[in-house]
Design brief:
Layout: E1 8-12, H1 15-24, E2 30-34, E3 36-37, E4 42-47, H2 49-52, H3 71-74, E5 82-88, H4 90-93, E6 99-104, H5 110-115, H6 118-124, E7 127-132, H7 138-150, E8 153-158, E9 169-175, E10 186-189, E11 212-214
Parallel strand pairs: 1-2, 1-11, 3-5, 6-7, 6-11
Antiparallel strand pairs: 4-5, 7-9, 8-9, 8-10
């Protein structure tokens, strides 16, 4: 990997988390963007108390999203102020730069995010990971798999629990034209919409060697 540059773009809606990311990545090639990712430009909001909650440190434990577990957290109480953040599409952020790899863990918003990344995925063919809940949130999982299939990718399930729920899994999404064998801790899973499991025979392709990492 000598000589390769992969600047990182970190996208985060909560202001307190943005500040923490900036502090933790000081001196590194990381661009922190205050905002969310979706299928269209817009504005999102959350109760301002999430940035100021006593005893709640910025980080992975202080998140918002579309999953049922976050709905009570997003509810405004009497006297609550609302904090806003811009919503971008991946295509908006990447229209003048290439994407090599992305880790998209947006707490249930992954299908919409992929719709907003269609041009980038078609142009750059990056590897990316997404989080899903195939049993406890099967409807959203099916929608996500359809979007992945539409983009011309197949999925390798990483054999580890990635959240509080036992069925939480990260999927490594690989362009169909890249031939990557399964291994002991990662197996291919089918979307059920065309590309099948394994899918060997699409040619070897190549993993992009330059561009941005979107996190």
């Amino acid at each position: 990997m000598a000589g390769l540059r992969h600047p990182i773009i970190a996208v985060e809606p909560l202001k307190s988390n943005v500040q923490r990311i900036v502090e933790m990545t000081f001196g590194l090639d990381v661009q922190t963007v205050h905002g969310g990712l979706g299928d269209a430009a817009g504005t999102g909001s959350y109760p301002e108390r999430l940035d100021m909650a006593a005893g709640r440190k910025p980080g992975a434990s202080n998140q918002i999203g579309l999953l049922p577990a976050y709905q009570a957290r997003l509810r405004l109480h009497d006297g609550d102020a609302s904090a806003e953040y811009p919503v971008y599409t991946v295509d908006m952020l990447m229209h003048k730069q290439n994407l090599s790899f992305a880790h998209w863990d947006v707490e249930g918003g992954e299908p919409a995010l992929l719709r907003g990344a269609a041009a980038t995925l078609a142009r750059d063919r990056p590897l990316f990971t997404v989080e899903t809940f195939p049993l406890s949130n099967s409807t959203r999982h099916s929608e996500l798999m359809r979007e992945i299939d539409t983009a011309g990718y197949r999925c390798m399930e990483l054999d580890e629990v990635c959240g509080a729920l036992k069925d939480c899994r990260n999927l490594m999404c690989i362009p169909v034209e890249i031939n990557v064998p399964a291994c002991e801790h990662a197996r291919y899973v089918s979307s059920g919409h065309g590309h099948g499991v394994g899918g060997h025979g699409h040619g070897h392709g190549r993993v992009p060697s330059h561009g941005r990492v979107l996190w």
